[in-house]
Amino acid sequence: MSEYFQIIKGKISDLKVIDTSLAVFGSGALNGLPAISQALMGDNLAAASQVATSNHYEDESDFLNSVQYFTCKIGNLEVRGIFCRVFFRNGDQVEVVVEPCEEDGYFAYALRRPIDHRLWLYPWAMKGSKANSRAALKSTRILILPVYLCNLLFIIALTRDLGAFIAAFFITTTVYILLFLIIYFCYKKLLGGGSKEADKIFATLGYSDPKTVDMEKEFLEVFMNKPESDPDFYVDTTTEEYRQEVPDGVKWVTFYCEAPPIPDYITVIDT
């Protein structure tokens, strides 16, 4: 398996979108494609047990599992994928990070729209693996450390002799270390479910250290470094794409500051 994806450049056409859930895809994005394809072709009866239609789905699904599956053409190439919300449109000029499917077409892991610097990413792929580990460590530390220190103060206040203090200290510390590790790995697994894909996506897009890329942080930097009124702002803020209303349910769509050049060794298909 290659350590890089490919990139397709061109205009979107024949875009079709269906609401679905990450649960449909189980352990892999390609697992749910047959059922999704049936639904897109109108065979809703065959897909009903696996794919929820929009009204029923919106009532019962939770925020994190809510995604949209799409198919489209970039030039003459068929592209399909899963993003939290699909609000790019026919006619948009895009750069799509893809992997060839076994049968035909390509599966999209990221879609970049240069005109407004917007980037759609595969579910949970906002951070590279190292950035995700750091975020999990920071969040767990913030959660556990204050409670642990409060317990130590409580032990100091209640214990009357050194032996009791040492015993209570070691028991409490051991419990909190185990609790820290459990929460850390659970958090890392939950919010870093797409970090391996993120490493490969960012490597394909030309980031020099893809494992440390944090698009949540870059999203903030876009608007913190320069005001939108700045003539040197990253994009033209008067374009229809930039002013486009963002639908509810957006989770893994971000803005990027400047796109690094795509490396020469990446396969780029310009349609």
Compact description:
The protein has 271 residues and is α+β, with helices and mostly antiparallel strands. The protein is built from seven helices and eight strands.
Summarize the structure in words.
The protein is α+β, with helices and mostly antiparallel strands and 271 residues long. The protein has two domains: 1-126 and 212-271, no CATH class; 129-191. The chain is 37% helix and 21% strand. It is built from seven helices and eight strands. The protein has a five-stranded mixed β-barrel with strand order 1-2-3-5-4. Helix 4 (129-158) runs antiparallel to helix 5. The longest helix has 30 residues, at 129-158. The protein is elongated and about 80 Å long. It starts with 5 loop residues before the first strand and ends with a strand. The model is unreliable at 38-61 (pLDDT under 50).
Fold topology:
Layout: E1 6-21, H1 33-40, H2 44-47, H3 54-60, E2 66-74, E3 77-83, E4 93-100, E5 106-113, E6 118-121, H4 129-158, H5 162-191, H6 195-204, H7 215-225, E7 253-255, E8 268-270
Parallel strand pairs: 1-8, 3-5
Antiparallel strand pairs: 1-2, 1-4, 2-3, 4-5, 5-6, 6-7
Helix pairs in contact: 4-5
Keywords: Membrane, Transmembrane, Transmembrane helix
Transmembrane segments: 142-159, 165-187
InterPro entries: T6SS_ExIF-like
